[in-house]
Inverse folding.
RNA sequence: GCGCCCAUAGCUCAGCUGGAUAGAGCGUUGGCCUCCGGAGCCAAAGGUCAGAGGUUCGAAUCCUCUUGGGCGCGCCA
């Protein structure tokens, strides 16, 4: 409807240009917004206000000229000038109600658009290190990323969801040593478990699996584990322990233990996310980049740019040339590439796979990492704007008013699984996605659990279930609901019906805005509004107990409502139950 | 110290990229049909949009400064 109005007004503007009121080269964009108050009609534009100065007219005079030039249009009932020069448009009721038919004809397609025009987008999110179960902090990224993927798909992008598995590097070694030490304990060895290794119970489970399947095969005498290291630094001691383990177990044994841990945790995370209604097209291994020399290739590609140099026997990327705070190491003194180097390879790989836009969802603590990543792309002559990084702020956790730590190593976190079991995947997803991603979020676990019944998701789902219930009642009373398409929409007109229809008609616009701005929370708010409009209507009017003609019309309206609720909930990964 | 993010009702948050009288949920107070599901509906109270300047017809929204909070500044990932 907005677009229709824009066309009408553009025609009027053209007319004024021809009449010399406006300069022919004057750039004019007529923007409409939904009027907040009823007395201001349905849509309002400030075009006369913004143009007034350019043509030396007062805004109100110009508004009048525009209105006079406006072509006759059946959808417009009335046009008014208000305030300093707003033009308020009142729509003809009949043309508004047609949306009910449009929605029902479009079915599941309603709200979809071709904004993306088939552009290939890869969205990478969660990507938590596979060193422990996901905690509630990861849940926010998961809910956000997945909803974004759904929104982008609905708006005509070709979307691939990917999880980058950080299965290389020191964190993996710490995982391996943690598993192995617990395993040795099970074998009956006396070992001191370092406090900076992974403390979580899940490590025992993995160790137990190894012990059950292989007995003492990976057992080594614990006295050989002792390292003669004076360094009081716990991290250095841990590294020394890892070195001992590699020697004692041999390459294959060590790889085995590490692999068991990695596989177990990856599988755990994958299952957890599936229960959360999040599925990835691909789990991309960081190690595979190293194994296939793609990291080396990337470093060479970067070197060809001329922004790579050697210092202190390490290889550096001159990222400061592109605005980064300092230059960054890509190959360590030891010869091992940094995490940054494999990340460059990963992003290069995404570009080579033909994605037009790379979307990364990161925790806000990684924001300092963005300039160097963009710099790398720029150095290799890619447009850095093809990388879009969406930062999701931390969710500070509280339990009984106390802040809860979320350290994976210390094993002191609340898992996503726990949360899901307490409140359910639907409530958790809705709760997460309700918040704007760049907004800090206080997550009170006790509140989230105790209020599970007051979560707005139930309010929205209840609206859907209620509509389904009305149709069940209709069936019981042998009321024919098969020909809602033939409903006479001109019978609508109650204020609650107008409000509901207006909200329904805004849905495609909300989806587009949510996708274009990477703001799925808009959809959550829209759905709450829609549910509110419906509940209010439900309370004020009867659907089944009225004359057959009106009954059919109202059923068509609430059926369209049910459809939009289903589509909208689906877009944020929440179910639309028939009964609750 | 430098950089990024944030500050809106008692609490948790929206505010449609600068519009008209700043809105929801929770909590508080009062009300609702013997009828399609009361997980609902209606109403009231609650605000110096952190503070101060600036930009303009017009600012919660844009700019500067101040205050207060979160995060980052590794040859960790």
């Amino acid at each position: 409807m907005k677009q229709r109005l824009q066309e009408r007004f553009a025609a009027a503007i053209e007319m004024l240009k021809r009449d010399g009121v406006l300069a022919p080269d004057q750039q004019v964009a007529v923007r409409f917004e939904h009027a907040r108050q009823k007395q201001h009609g349905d849509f309002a534009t400030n075009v006369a206000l913004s143009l007034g100065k350019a043509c030396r007219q007062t805004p109100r005079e110009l508004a009048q000229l525009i209105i006079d030039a406006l072509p006759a249009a059946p959808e417009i009932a009335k046009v008014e000038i208000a305030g300093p020069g707003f033009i308020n448009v009142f729509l003809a009721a009949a043309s508004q109600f047609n949306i009910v038919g449009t929605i029902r004809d479009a079915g599941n397609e309603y709200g979809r658009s071709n904004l993306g025009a088939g552009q290939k987008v890869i969205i990478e999110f969660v990507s938590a290190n596979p060193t422990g179960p996901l905690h509630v902090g990861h849940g926010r990224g998961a809910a956000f990323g997945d909803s974004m993927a759904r929104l982008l798909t609905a708006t005509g992008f070709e979307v691939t969801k990917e999880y980058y598995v950080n299965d290389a590097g020191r964190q993996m070694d710490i995982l391996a040593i943690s598993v192995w030490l617990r395993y040795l304990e099970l074998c009956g060895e006396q070992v001191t478990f370092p406090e900076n290794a992974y403390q979580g119970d899940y490590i025992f489970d993995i160790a137990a699996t190894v012990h059950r399947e292989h007995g003492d095969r990976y057992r080594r005498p614990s006295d050989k584990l002792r390292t003669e290291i004076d360094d009081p630094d716990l991290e250095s001691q841990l590294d020394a322990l890892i070195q001992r383990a590699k020697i004692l177990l041999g390459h294959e044994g060590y790889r085995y233990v590490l692999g068991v841990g990695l596989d177990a945790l990856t599988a755990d995370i994958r299952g957890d996310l599936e229960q959360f209604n999040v599925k990835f097209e691909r789990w991309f291994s960081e190690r595979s980049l190293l194994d296939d020399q793609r990291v080396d290739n990337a470093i060479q590609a970067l070197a060809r740019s001329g922004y790579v140099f050697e210092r202190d026997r390490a290889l550096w990327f001159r990222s400061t040339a592109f605005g980064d705070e300092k230059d960054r190491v890509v190959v360590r003194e030891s010869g091992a590439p940094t995490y940054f180097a494999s990340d460059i390879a990963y992003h290069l790989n995404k570009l080579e796979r033909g994605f037009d836009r790379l979307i990364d969802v990161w925790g806000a603590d990684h924001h300092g990492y963005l300039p160097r990543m963009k710099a790398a792309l720029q150095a290799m002559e890619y447009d850095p704007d093809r990388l879009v990084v969406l930062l999701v702020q931390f969710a500070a956790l509280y339990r009984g008013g106390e802040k809860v730590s979320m350290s994976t190593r210390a094993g002191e976190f609340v898992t996503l699984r726990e949360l899901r079991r307490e409140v359910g995947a639907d409530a958790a997803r809705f709760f997460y996605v309700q918040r704007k991603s760049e907004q800090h979020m206080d997550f009170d676990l006790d509140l989230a659990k105790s209020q599970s019944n007051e979560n707005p998701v139930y309010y929205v789902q209840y609206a859907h279930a209620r509509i389904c219930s009305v149709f069940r009642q209709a069936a019981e009373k042998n009321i024919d609901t098969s020909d809602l398409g033939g409903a006479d929409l001109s019978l609508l007109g109650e204020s609650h019906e107008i409000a509901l229809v207006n909200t329904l008609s805004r849905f495609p616009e909300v989806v587009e805005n949510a996708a274009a701005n990477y703001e799925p929370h808009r959809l959550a708010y829209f759905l709450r509004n829609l549910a509110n409009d419906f509940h209010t209507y439900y309370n004020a009017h009867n659907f089944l107990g009225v004359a057959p003609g009106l009954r059919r019309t109202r059923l068509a309206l609430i059926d369209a409502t049910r459809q939009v609720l289903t589509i909208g909930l689906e877009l944020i990964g929440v179910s639309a139950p028939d009964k609750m």
In short: DSSP finds 19 helices and 15 strands in chain A. The radius of gyration of chain A is 30 Å.
